[in-house]
Design goal:
Helix content: under 10%
Strand content: 25-35%
Shape: globular
Largest sheet: 13 strands, parallel
Number of helices: 4
Structural class: mainly beta
Length: 323
């Protein structure tokens, strides 16, 4: 509770008594009072804020080793429903431009919930109002690769066009393309403990920024992503931080990195303007900037994800990954 207050969350609106930050991990070794797990924790466990606990659990109902491949989905919509209203958006190039806004049609193309070791690849989605691919709560070790979202149809406002959305843990979104999304590459869910990775993804004609949209989403890596990106405090309802301990690595496009209490957000080798150019009315400009290094000049290694993969499994693993 005290930590939630410190990071600026509205306890009443977020029902803070029920908020936990759960890292789903596997114990790989026990030596005395030292426990080794299979992946890092992306949020510090600090005794000053109550500490944490380790809880054993079983998940017999979780689906495993399931995938969707080589599909093209189209959501039919009513072309007579159009609007020129863009909600609270303030991007002047779109003001007055009419667009299809019907929402009485299919919302999401592919959605996973409570699944591990899952994948989606070579999928194309047309006209869906919500997500092309939604990795929901309870998902772990999921990969979405070489997927495309085109011409979404919905009102351009909150809760829509979250094109490739991740609410799980240890997930990878690779070489995906989003056209006319709002939050094209986005993390969601109230408390989502990473790490999660967006790698080599592109957003074309986006209406807003890609971001870890959840208040308690930690450990998101945007690696060589071409899209407007934001790690920020949003003056939404309720006001909230958009993630903690997140990293942009050699990305391109307009961006903002702000520093949350008790944590940090990072940008390395970003090509683009560090400015609050997206949804300016919803960003608290009084917040401190996060850590920015090598602006407008790429850094080494070219890909942080691939370098970490090489360090863990060797160069052949990287070669296999890129095939």
């Amino acid at each position: 509770m005290e930590w939630l207050r410190t990071i600026g969350l509205d306890i009443v609106k977020w029902k803070g008594d029920g908020v936990t930050h759960d890292a789903d991990r596997v114990i790989t070794a026990v030596e005395g009072d030292r426990i080794t797990i299979d992946a890092p924790i992306t949020c510090a466990i600090d005794t000053a804020w109550g500490g944490g606990e380790m809880v054993k659990y079983a998940d017999p109902g979780r689906i495993r080793e399931a995938g969707v491949e080589n599909l093209r989905g189209m959501s039919d919509f009513d072309r007579s429903v159009r609007t020129s209203n863009y909600g609270n958006m303030d991007r002047t190039p779109y003001v007055g431009a009419e667009y299809y806004s019907d929402e009485n049609h299919y919302w999401n193309f592919i959605a996973f919930t409570n699944v591990s070791n899952a994948w989606v690849r070579d999928v194309t989605a047309l006209h869906f109002a919500g997500s092309a691919v939604l990795i929901g709560q309870g998902c772990k070790w999921a990969t979405v690769r070489d997927c495309t979202s085109l011409e979404p149809v919905s009102f351009c406002a909150g809760g829509r066009r979250f094109t490739f959305q991740t609410c799980g843990q240890l997930c990878l979104i690779l070489r995906c393309f989003s056209d006319r999304g709002r939050h094209s590459f986005v993390g969601g869910g109230l408390a989502t403990c990473g790490p999660n990775v967006y790698l080599d993804c592109v957003a074309s004609r986006p209406y807003s920024s890609s971001e870890p949209h959840s208040s308690l989403m930690t450990g998101t890596l945007y690696d060589n992503v071409k899209a407007p990106l934001a790690f920020r405090f949003a003056l939404s309802d309720p006001p909230r931080w958009m993630g903690f301990n997140n990293v942009m690595w050699n990305c391109e496009g307009m961006f903002i990195v702000q520093r949350p209490p008790t944590a940090q957000n990072y940008s390395f080798g970003h090509i683009g303007m560090h400015a609050m150019l997206f949804n300016r009315a919803l960003i608290d400009s009084s917040k401190e900037f996060g850590y920015v290094e090598s602006l407008d000049e790429k850094v080494l290694p070219p890909s942080l994800y691939r370098k970490q993969l090489e360090d863990r499994l060797g160069k052949q693993a990287v070669l296999n990954f890129d095939r």
